[in-house]
What we know:
By secondary structure, this protein is an alpha+beta fold.
Amino acid sequence: xxxxxxxxxxxxxxxxxxxxxxxxxxxxxxxxxxxxxxxxxxxxxxxxxxxxxxxxxxxxxxxxxxxxxxxxxxxxxxxxxxxxxxxxxxxxxxx
Length: 95
């Protein structure tokens, strides 16, 4: 029975008509029946401000590359990702 359900034909879905499991990843149905999405929740000033504070706090964290050593870890400035994270990802962006 499990194999029959696993390999059965399923309806094709797209972003205009997503499958229920996909919709549940990006939204939440409140007890009132109202669907809450990222966009609708950011319309609430308190939620927007909380997200803003968290995003700004994470943006202030330094991105540094480290390598494991026998004593623990040490900074790895020679790693190829180090320049991208710490200096400049490309000519159009700053870190």
